[in-house]
Design brief:
single chain; 335 residues
Amino acid sequence: MDAHEVQLASYPDGVMEARNFRINTVPVPELSDGQVMVRLRRLGLNAGLANRIGGPDTAYGPGINPGDVPASDAVVEIVESRCGAFKPGDMAVRKSPWRSIDVAAEDDLRRIPALEACVPLEAYLTVLGHTGFTAYAGMTRFGGVRAEDTVYVSGAAGGVGSCAVQFAKAVGATVIGSAGSLEKVKLLRALGADAAFNHRDGAALDLLREAAPDGIDLFYDNVGGEQLEAALEALRFGGRVVVCGAASQYGKGSERRGPSNYLRMTYQQLTLRGFDVTSNEDLRQEFETDVASWLRAGKIRSVDTLVRGFGQIPAAFASLLAGGNSGRMIVDCDS
């Protein structure tokens, strides 16, 4: 049996493009005991993966070089099994190579419970998936979000950001979000944000002060750069920053610098924390319980941009890096 896989073909010369990838046909290995054969159903794409292309190994995975096959979290269907835990037709989530059919160890799969009619497959890559878990860990464990907080989320219409907005609202906080287009601002309001703005409409600090004239308590940062500096100015005494990502600094040629006003952290007694979500698996059960409850209650929903066709993975990834998504960028590999 053969499968299709997406390989990195060349390093980008500036902006990542679909032509930096190629699709090859490869044989599927024979199954061994304790393994399953899986078919890729949905593939979630992450902007942070771009930081590993031509870069070093990180906690999220190895550096990616020409000839390598990237990997992302995915929903897969078991098509053949040589283990007792899974049978054909079962569904699971795994960190999957960008490969249409693959062989996986039993321990690499996390079972999806019997599918509920109200829960689409995409939800297991958004609010109930890795991006949701990232948002939940950052908001609750590292941000300590409270109902009385005013929370600002940058990159709020992205995969993690849209979850962070909804989770903060679910606990009762006042939420402000920034995004990169009028369409995305409208999405944030539809998700319950109390205020939202297009960061392209002016200076980040002016826009944030207009949205939060009394200041903010917690900043969930997916962008860095000017928006981080603006948040440091707007944070009230004892405020907190959770650093989840830095989309403004991903990719070749991006400006990489720390905030020029970092001394505000001293006299405002601010706290800035980064985190690695993979080190917080002990929070998984709490996350799944809370988020499933919010989902059933209609407090949150899956937000994604769905691209159809395995062959569209390179174009979808390039579009993601150019801001062409609302919510998580997901490829429907059934089409």
